Amino acid sequence: MKNKAALSIYIGFSIFYLVITALNQEAIARFLKPFLLPLLLVAVYNSPAFTTKKLLLTALTFSWIGDVILLFADKGEIYFILGLVAFLVSHVFYIVLFSKQSISKTINNKISFGAGTGLILLYFFGMITTLGPQLGPLTVPVVIYAVVISTMLFYALKGSFQWNTIPYQSVLIGAIFFISSDSILAFNKFDQPIPQASFLIMITYLAAQFCIVWGILKLNQKK
Prior knowledge:
Largest sheet: none
Number of strands: 0
Structural class: mainly alpha
Number of helices: 9
Shape: globular
Radius of gyration: 17 Å
Oligomer: single chain
């Protein structure tokens, strides 16, 4: 019950934060942001033990570290790079987390799986081709990050064909939201300003973290 309460508070607090962000109350939003992910950490910590629980907690912790560091991105490029590194580590743990979930069946619909994999590759090369000329000295770290998030999405897609329970869709949707949030951030920073970028980045990011956490908890709940 404690984890359900924390998840409910996270949803309510996220909605409040997004309203503040939409109203361009940046000072209040900056103050509230570090308190968002700890609610998911509490939800996971209070959930019954399961094999990949520590992986999920670690992934969320590094995401939270990235959230905090990026609050200072306007102070210098080093903060953006460090935030990128924190989220890269978080995604690596999500990859391991998704790959270690118990598998209930093999992939039967190989055509759909192949099409999904193709779309991920198309996304990756599209991002690199579009943003590449604008990246400058950040080309290598951004390309590495793009490889990692694309891999994270691939494992979520793969799991969606193997996990024989309803919540598998939540994990895949969360991964799609996550890659959408990162893409909006990248285009806003390196290509051209996007209207209401902060709101769009955060609504997709907060939805991503919730969907992944909720899906993983459901996949591992005691029957």
